[in-house]
Predict the structure.
Amino acid sequence: MASNVNPTVRRRRLGQELRRLREQKGMTAEEVADRLLVSQSKISRLENGRRSISQRDVRDLCGVYEVEDRRVVDSLMQMAKDSRQQGWWHAFGDIPYSVYIGLETDAASLRVYESLIVPGLLQTRDYAQAVIEGMWPEATQSEIDKRIQIRLKRQDRLTDPDNPLRFWAVIDEALLRRVVGNDRIMADQLKHLVELSMQPHVTLQVLPYAVGAHPGMYGKFVILEFQDAMDASVVYLEGVTSDLYLEKPNDVQSYTVMYEHLRAKALSAEQSMEFIRLVSESYGG
């Protein structure tokens, strides 16, 4: 296990291994829960990596699965210990979407569809502040400042000289037209989009109004892919009070196909850059 793997990914890998051991034993999550006198939902959360896994949990599960190889048990116990380490985002306190940040931090590439606001990794500070103030009108100034700092820190992945995030975004024309903040903020934001799209690892496509109905009308989503073959792709759907992570191959495939249709309907990267420049002029940019 590489030392630079973050705790979210460690939990996910450990959960996958525990699921494999359960399935190898031919047991259901309900049967394991009954043996350990815990809820079935706890077993599910341990296996999907959404819950911290203690070394005691690992020991108990290995006992149920009758894992006799001490090296395997010790390796899983070490993974559980490492998974409880803290990522950079923990310094900001309680964050509702910390699981997503952990996955994003370790992802090799992101495919994003966004219809209403500029994707967070592409936002300027002023735009981010205006968005956060508008979306959370009851947030305190300290909460707003914390969200801004986290968003800007996440953007380090795009500028990492050694391991830049491969970022592909299809954005709806609507988010270019919606005035967030004021005209100056919008002009600066669209100029920023053009500059970012010139980076070799960033691709930006605009889905114009003229295409009419399209698969993205279901709502925004993110497909996260990872360098290590052990880590399956994840589809992330953001909600108001809770988020959804889809990892089943059929679910990921459905969103992948949807994304390919969106890319096909959208303007090319070159056309999109010119389109954004034209819209920017309407804001005095």
About this structure: The longest strand covers residues 166-172.
